[in-house]
Design a protein that fits this description.
425 residues, alpha+beta, Aminopeptidase, seven-stranded mixed β-sheet, 30% helix, transmembrane, LytR_CpsA_psr
């Protein structure tokens, strides 16, 4: 059995608003990334939205997994910094684990959702769900497995009534579930119901009916951006030469967008006299704006691996940020660590499932950046077909086995059988 992703309704395509589309052309080379002022960010030439995939684990992970350095300046101080800014809300609803028996013991599944909402937005405008990730923590609590469900996976979305509008159910992209759940609502109410319908939708996948999420989080763009600013950028390995479709410079140093965008959203011809920012293969220290630009790219990648390449780069970026925090003296600088955690907390809304944040942090204290494995659905390969006249991507049987291994706490066994599905660090 295969589950498919459709190119139909997509309330969360993070490239559409900026004109990004797969161009199909081969990228060229380029020099090393320019270091044009460490904290400089590209100008705003229209609405640009960065993928929330990478933001999730920097934010949520900072609370759960950076406490390997807790003894450096005291448990109470760290916990206070980590929890004081976090918004807590019941997101899991009836689809979550039983709160009356909440405990940090045993295997844990955490649902992470990235959104791109705006204050006071039109109630009739669908809230975007840019990324959907399951963080599975085995009973040993010494490892974390990150599994991203492709945002346009074609699924059955069950009927749902949020008290304002009723959705009658149907088949659509999985990210539409978040939008339909919160339709007609705004603010926290929209998020709560969108999150719950997304949970219920995941439970409709083959073999996933028994999954219960023990915690969840919703993360916004602005918080991640500010965390990277606090860190002053990250050092990471660029595994394939990547040209930016968003940022370029003229010979005089003026910033311009380097490509025209076709009416269908595809990347068009190059803008004369504008050289695209190019990230060459190798280890680089990326300034905040470069890092955010790099993890957005999927069009002009050397290996032509499109969205799979972008997901891999985002996964690599997650670990790079963890390592940056651990190696930059942040943990030995109480003021800086407090600022990082405060910034992290303001970016997120969490549901701890009836377990205190303090207990979560203590239970996950042995999980560090190198203990997080990211696993690629479809082994990182494209699998396309036509459904209802539209080009779609399918999730193969092995991908469904991966998701089912989350329910049975056997992800480690899956990894042993499919080591090539683990993304490179």
């Amino acid at each position: 059995m295969q589950y498919a992703s459709s190119a139909a309704f997509d309330p969360s395509d993070d490239d559409r608003s900026s004109g990004s589309r797969r161009s199909g052309g081969r990228p060229g080379g380029g020099g090393p990334p320019r270091q044009r002022g460490g904290n400089r960010r590209p100008k705003k030439g229209g609405k640009r939205r960065d993928p929330l995939w990478a933001k999730l684990f920097v934010v949520f992970g900072a609370l759960l997994m950076l406490t390997s350095g807790v003894a450096i300046f005291g448990t109470k101080a760290l916990l206070a910094a980590a929890t004081k800014s976090v918004t807590q809300q019941n997101l899991l609803g009836s689809a979550g684990a039983d709160r009356s028996h909440a405990s940090v013991n045993g295997p844990k599944n955490i649902l992470l959702v990235g959104v791109d909402s705006r204050p006071n937005q039109d109630p009739n405008e669908l809230v975007r769900s840019d990324s959907i990730i399951i963080l599975h923590i085995p009973a040993s609590h010494d490892q974390g497995y990150m599994i991203s469900i492709p945002r346009d996976t074609y699924v059955e979305i069950p009927e749902y009534d949020n008290g304002k509008q009723k959705y009658d159910g149907g088949h659509d992209k999985i990210n539409a579930a978040f939008a339909f759940g919160g339709r007609g609502l705004t603010g926290n109410a929209a998020r709560q119901h969108g999150f719950e319908l997304l949970e219920k939708t995941i439970q409709t996948l083959p073999g996933m009916s028994d999954i219960k999420f023990d915690a969840g989080a919703i993360v916004d763009f602005t918080g991640f951006q500010q965390v990277v600013q606090v860190l002053g950028g990250v050092t990471m390995y660029v595994d394939e030469t990547t040209r930016s479709i968003h940022v370029g410079f003229t010979k005089s140093g003026k910033e311009e967008e380097p490509f025209h965008v076709n009416s269908d959203g595809t990347v068009g011809r190059a803008v004369p006299g504008v050289t695209p920012e190019t990230y060459t293969k190798g280890t680089h220290h990326l300034s905040p704006w470069q890092a955010l630009d790099y993890v957005r790219q999927r069009d002009l990648l050397e290996n032509q691996d499109g969205d799979y390449g972008r997901q891999r780069h985002q996964q690599q970026f997650i670990k790079a940020v963890f390592k940056e925090i651990l190696s930059s003296g942040t943990l030995t600088n109480p003021a800086k660590l407090t600022k990082v955690l405060d910034t992290v907390g303001k970016a997120m809304t969490v549901d701890t499932g009836g377990v205190s944040i303090e207990d979560w942090i203590f239970a996950m204290r042995n999980i560090g950046a190198n203990d997080l494995l990211t696993i690629k659905t479809n082994g990182g390969q494209f699998s396309t077909q036509m459904i209802n006249g539209q080009s779609v991507q399918t999730l193969d049987d092995t991908s469904m086995q991966l998701l089912q291994s989350v329910v049975t706490d056997s992800v480690s066994s899956f990894v042993q059988l499919h080591p090539d599905w683990v993304a490179a660090s």
